[in-house]
Design a protein that fits this description.
Layout lengths: L8 H15 L5 E7 L6 H11 L10 E7 L4 E6 L1 H4 L4 H15 L4 H19 L15 E2 L2
Parallel strand pairs: 1-2, 1-4
Antiparallel strand pairs: 2-3
Helix pairs in contact: 1-5, 4-5
Length: 145
């Protein structure tokens, strides 16, 4: 695992485990991307990262990105077309607010873990894990510049 300026190896492993655990209960795929700066609209940047990471290539279009720009104090959570057909904007807003509540306490890892768990819980109802599910995307947190 590459060294990160945001997380210790143990913290990165904790986030990865939260993703693995969440994906055990849903057919959705969850990715986390953290970087320092976002100089554009946060949703535009998150959408670009979403495509760059290939999250849109999941079989049922059930990928989710949790995007955080630390120094810019920006956060976005976006889902692919399959998910967005089934959920409301409040679905994402509640998870965003949960993560922000942790960030305000200077708890980045706790916020990401809580957010990932909540996404997994929320997706479980609409997109339960199936026996034939495959892990389509890596589970590691990605750290940009």
């Amino acid at each position: 695992m590459a060294r990160s300026k945001f997380f210790t190896p143990e913290q990165a492993s904790q986030i990865k485990q939260a993703i693995v655990d969440a994906e055990k209960q849903t057919s959705g795929e969850i990715r986390v991307y953290v970087e320092s700066l976002c100089t554009e609209d946060v949703l535009d940047r998150a959408a670009w990262i979403f495509r760059e990471m290939g999250i849109h290539r999941t079989k049922d279009r059930t990928g989710v990105l949790v995007y955080i720009a630390m120094q810019s104090h920006k956060l976005a959570i976006i889902g692919d077309a399959g998910i967005n057909k089934e959920v409301t904007p409040e679905f994402w807003e509640g998870t965003r607010d949960l993560i922000i509540s942790h960030l305000r306490k200077d708890d980045l890892v706790g916020g990401i873990v809580a957010g990932v768990r909540q996404v997994g819980d929320l997706l479980h109802d609409k997109f339960p894990h199936r026996k034939d599910d495959k892990n389509e995307l890596p589970d590691e947190v990605v750290c940009g510049q």
